[in-house]
Amino acid sequence: MGRIFSGLQPTGNFHLGNYLGALRNWVAMQKEHESFFCLVDLHALTTLPEPSKLRSNVREIVAVYLAAGIDPERSYIFPQSAVSAHCELGWILSCLTPLGWLNRMTQFKEKAGKQREQANLGLYAYPVLQAADILAYRATHVPVGEDQKQHLELVRDIAGAFNRQYQVDYFPLPEPVILKTAARVMSLRDGSVKMSKSDPSEYSRIQFSDDPDAIALKIRKAKTDPDPIAGDPKAMENRLEALNLLGIYGALSDQSLDAVCREFEGQNFSHFKQKLTELLINTLEPIRQKMTVFLKNPERLDAILEKGSQKARDLACTHMNEIKDIVGLLKA
Ligand code: TYM
């Protein structure tokens, strides 16, 4: 049994990609591992969200976690800002991280875009804080979507740099756990970009706040092509939107892409889209209903966060004392 750490930014618009790429795997993995599921509100600050929105998003995401099946009796749910060790360790790790490593991060390049000089330091240092999140708990496994692969390689490099610098074997090198199906869910409007919370078009993503009518409309409008579905995904290499929808179907029905292609071989997309809509509604609607019930009881959500924060603080604080000792800082 290892220890899991993973996190999600409470920036609103929780979508199907977050669920299929990350959350559904957390639900499965919590049974086997001690699990810490964080709401990374400090990371969310890099986009300077409206304060009241950030506060309400935190509760909304806790409701999503619970409704999707995270068990608060078994796993710890907490906001990043409740545990000061994340920032303290972030600083220590930043002193071990060469700028060259950060300059390679594609997510920073994408987010900063042409405004690189205007991008804030938080956005640039984002992966170092992410390393601190994971290493403060000495986590062994990190279930994430494919887009986080590069950040997790960096976390392993930073953990290795610490161990080497101080000649210790203190941090385990955490393993990314990336699912085979739907590890990267793409936009419904453009199969070459990932489904994202910040895409200006709501039609690009299925959100967990969408009711069945909204889901049906978004799938009806989702981009496809006029050709029938091929029995072999390799024959569809350049049909990105088609492959994305088939991949979503596979992830939701626990089947490989090959199996889905075989099932729908020769059929056109209007029939497939009906089947996909049914599957999406059957999966998401019960979660949406449960979310609404959880959101009606904010005291319970706050109590769950408090319990998770307490446990996270205790563990991270023990580790921080050991880390301070290793690097030569006086213990608290
Ligand atoms: P965030 O909030 O952007 O994403 C949360 C999780 O959702 C996954 N994801 C996707 N998976 C498949 N298809 C998509 N289109 C898609 N979009 C998002 C992400 O891979 C992620 O697993 N940097 C992290 C937050 C974080 C973190 C951590 C994660 C901060 N500290 C420590 C793990 C461990 C992020 O991208 O969040």
Which features does this protein show?
332 residues, mainly alpha, Rossmann fold, Tyrosyl-Transfer RNA Synthetase, 2 domains, three-stranded parallel β-sheet, two-stranded parallel ribbon, 13 helices, binds tryptophanyl-5'AMP
SSE blueprint and pairings:
Blueprint: E1 3-8, H1 16-29, E2 34-39, H2 41-44, H3 51-68, E3 76-79, H4 85-94, H5 99-103, H6 106-112, H7 121-135, E4 141-143, H8 149-165, E5 175-177, H9 212-221, H10 240-252, H11 257-264, H12 269-295, H13 298-327
The structure holds tryptophanyl-5'AMP.
Describe this structure in words.
The chain is mainly α and 332 residues long. It folds into two domains: 3-183 and 298-327, Rossmann fold, CATH 3.40.50; 202-293, Tyrosyl-Transfer RNA Synthetase (Orthogonal Bundle). It has 13 helices and five strands. β4, α8 and β5 form a beta-alpha-beta unit. α4 packs parallel to α13, α7 (121-135) crosses α8 and α10 crosses α11. 39% of the residues are buried. Tryptophanyl-5'AMP binds at residues 5-9, 17-18, 21-22, 40, 43, 130, 133-134, 142, 144-145, 147-148, 183-185, 194-195. The site of tryptophanyl-5'AMP (TYM) has 24 residues, from β1, α1 and α7.
How many β-strand stretches?
5
For the sheet with most strands, the description reads: 3 strands, parallel
Fraction of residues in helix: 40-55%
Question: Which strand order spans the largest sheet, edge to edge or round the barrel?
Answer: 1-2-3
Number of helical runs? Answer: 13
> Number of folding domains?
2
Beta-strand residue percentage: 5-15%
Instruction: Flag low-confidence runs.
Output: none
Bound molecules: tryptophanyl-5'AMP
CATH superfamily of the largest domain: HUPs
Q: Which secondary-structure class do the elements indicate?
A: mainly alpha
CATH topology of the largest domain: Rossmann fold
Average predicted confidence as pLDDT: 96
